[in-house]
Write a structure and sequence with these properties.
36% of the residues lie in helices and 18% in strands. It has helices spanning 4-14, 46-55, 71-76, 82-85, 99-108, 114-118, 136-157, 169-172, 176-192, 210-222, 224-227, 239-248, 253-256, 328-340, 353-359, 376-388, 443-454, 463-470, 484-487; strands spanning 58-60, 95-98, 119-121, 164-166, 199-204, 230-235, 262-265, 280-285, 294-298, 305-312, 318-323, 372-374, 392-399, 413-418, 421-425, 436-438, 458-462, 492-497. The strands form four sheets. It has a seven-stranded mixed sheet with strand order 7-6-5-8-13-18-17, with helices on both faces. Strands 1, 2, 9, 10, 11 and 12 form a six-stranded antiparallel sheet that branches. Strands 15-14-16 form a three-stranded antiparallel sheet, with helices on one face. β10 and β11 (318-323) form a beta hairpin. α9 crosses α10 and α16 runs parallel beside α17.
Length: 498
């Protein structure tokens, strides 16, 4: 733990149902509720509001707690980015940054980020014998015991109340999930490419490297001719996970046989600058939910967007500001979405103008809408694919719905673990590195934007439908007919380039 103060934070989180009860406690390094400056003469007409906006472009959100005004600090503190903080070993203070940079820094900073320093991926050990289990209830019990055993072994070496442990379908359904992906890749490779071309697979967010091994094991066993021409390249932002993935290739004689087919590239996909002219497949499974988003609020009267910025003061406390000066990345996303999207999507301005005018003129009403979280990093990922991997085929899977999200449209789940309990909180302005921040994906919007930016066609399926096509689901069928491979990720979808 960084300090006694942070220990106190987790103790308080553990003793409360949600962080909404923590808001009145000033010493905790969680986000204070947001405050906007009041705009004088709330009843003025819309044109007067537009004139006032030219004089004041940064608003600080209003709250019942009325924390001190930080406008002077906002004007004084320098603007920083997540890329600029990558070399920094301590969490920054007396700075401001866009909310997408705050999220990226919290998750991926190499010195204190969640995935770099805190996250541990659960490994169940030997594969589950699903066919011998009576039901999903028994699977729950077996899985719970393996979780306990796994963490007991870790605590025997290094006790840690705040270990951030999580699992993926690759690990739970090893090797069957990976084999389904391998069947998809091989069959599409045989259809789309001449037999003399290599099968080149890129993966981002490879975790423990289990999916990589499962895919290569399957291709080597069932398609040895394709295996000879297979190259698997992992692009991994985390140095610790890149080392773990490399170690997986030495854990057994079977795994060592894959070494000549694997390249692990320890860098961010967003810093990629090498042109790849050859056809390739790009895997992004359970990874885009952690791509950084921008926060946009709208003036309910003028409908103008304002972009969110986080101010971190000298004490390490967070304050949220919104500015009419939209940066080029967020502005481009809004333009692309407006031009490209045929699918409907939720929006803070969906209610009628009359209803908004009445609602936001009520006493103590907020002067901006709830935030909308827009996937600007996802757009930049598609830019990378278009520019550097023009002949790629993308296969991505993630959550289209998540429970316990914070307030807003397209808002994330923000959660941590303390003493082996998962604790969701109600703000994303939290101590960097100790909280997972994961967003649901609107697959309709994603598909429209991907098509517009890359010129490629796609298909979206439910997680279950995709696995019904490509998995040998009899391998995970239980005695009562239940099948967790098909049912456990009902809130996930798959998008594939066609």
């Amino acid at each position: 733990m960084d300090s006694a103060l942070l220990t106190n934070l987790f103790r308080r989180l553990f003793s409360h149902q949600t962080c909404s009860r923590l808001k009145p406690i000033p010493p905790l390094p969680v986000a204070r509720k947001h405050q906007y400056h009041r705009i004088p003469n709330e009843d003025r007409r819309d044109d007067a509001r537009r004139q006032d906006a030219n004089r004041e472009s940064s608003w600080q959100q209003r709250t019942d707690l009325f924390p001190e005004d930080k406008t002077k600090d906002f004007k004084k503190y320098p603007m920083v980015t997540a890329d600029g903080l990558r070399g920094r070993k301590e969490r920054p203070k007396k700075v401001k940054m866009l909310i997408r940079d705050f999220i990226e820094d919290s998750l991926y900073n190499p010195h204190y980020g969640y995935f770099s320093k805190q996250a541990v991926i659960f490994t169940p050990g030997e594969r589950f014998d699903f066919n011998s289990m009576s039901s999903e209830h028994q699977f729950h019990a077996v899985l719970r015991q393996r979780y306990t055993d796994f963490e007991d072994k870790l605590d025997a070496q290094w006790p840690n109340d705040t270990r951030q442990l999580w699992h993926t379908p690759t690990e739970l359904f090893h090797p069957y999930y990976g084999e389904a992906m391998a069947r998809y890749l091989v069959e599409n490779y045989k259809i789309s490419h001449p037999p003399y071309q290599d099968l080149i697979i890129y993966e981002i967010g490879a975790g423990n490297g289990t999916l990589m091994l499962n895919i290569l094991d399957y291709i080597r066993q069932f398609h040895p001719d394709v295996y000879d021409r297979t190259k698997f390249k992992v692009i991994e932002i985390s140095s610790s996970l890149a080392s773990l993935q490399a170690s997986q290739l030495t854990r057994s004689t079977s795994a060592r046989g894959h070494a000549a087919h694997v390249e692990i590239i320890n860098r961010s996909i967003f810093s990629w600058d090498t042109y790849v002219a050859t056809p390739c497949y790009f895997l992004a499974l359970e990874v885009i939910d952690n791509f950084a988003h921008d926060a946009i609020r709208y003036d309910p009267f003028t409908e103008e967007p304002l972009q969110g910025t986080v101010l971190i003061d000298g004490a390490g406390d967070f304050y949220e500001f919104y500015s009419r000066d939209i940066d080029p990345v967020a502005a481009r996303f809004l333009r692309v979405r407006d031009a490209a999207c045929a699918h409907p999507f939720d929006h803070p301005l969906q209610s009628s103008r009359l209803v908004r005018h009445v609602k936001y003129r009520l006493p103590f009403a907020a002067n901006l809408t709830v935030p909308e979280y827009i996937p600007t990093r996802l757009m930049q990922f598609f830019d990378i694919l278009r520019e550097y991997f023009p002949r790629h085929q993308l296969l991505t899977s993630d959550f289209h719905y998540l429970p316990d999200t914070i307030k807003g449209v397209g808002s994330p789940v923000v959660q941590t673990r303390y003493q082996r309990h998962v604790i969701p909180v109600t703000t994303l302005l939290v101590h960097q590195g100790y909280f997972d921040i994961l967003f649901p994906t609107n697959f309709g919007v994603m598909e429209d934007i991907y098509r517009a930016l890359t010129g490629k066609l796609t298909r979206v399926l439910s997680h279950e439908d995709f696995l019904l096509r490509w998995a040998y689901f009899e391998d995970t069928k239980m005695l009562n007919g239940e099948n967790p491979l098909l049912s456990w990720y009902a809130n996930a979808s798959v998008m594939a380039t066609t």
